[in-house]
């Protein structure tokens, strides 16, 4: 599966953004999907993930209550709605996919930069 992330940008603290990740291929609905973020050379952090059925969802503590992951299998797209953004949310955000795992992903899209200013 090939992934294309979009929706990043420069916003102020407290604002909202919605990231989208469009997937190619007819088997998107069978993939677990995740959003991860990376700041500079630091390790990528799993922010949110959703199982292929949508029945299992994971959020990092930093995302709970502010971020919502969702998927539209008819559109081959996964979303990350980010509300009440903080400066600490500044990072490159990547979408990722895997057939079997909801935390260890084998396919990655290019990143989209999110910058939150004060």
Descriptive overview:
The structure is a single chain. The protein is mostly beta strands. The chain is 0% helix and 50% strand. The chain is built from no helices and eleven strands. The chain has strands spanning 3-6, 9-12, 17-23, 32-38, 45-50, 57-59, 67-72, 77-82, 91-98, 107-108, 112-117. The strands form two sheets. Strands 2, 4, 5, 6, 9, 10 and 11 form a seven-stranded mixed sheet that branches. Strands 1-3-8-7 form a four-stranded antiparallel sheet, with no helix packed on it. A hairpin with a 6-residue loop joins strand 5 and strand 6. The radius of gyration is 13 Å and the shape is globular. The chain starts with a strand and ends with a strand.
What's the quick description here?
The protein is mostly beta strands and 118 residues long. 0% of the residues lie in helices and 50% in strands.
Gyration radius from CA atoms, angstroms: 13 Å
Give the DSSP E fraction (strand runs of 2 or more residues). Answer: over 45%
Oligomer: single chain
The unreliable regions are none
Inertia-based shape: globular
**How many β-strands, per DSSP?**
11
What's the helix-strand series? EEEEEEEEEEE
Helix content: under 10%
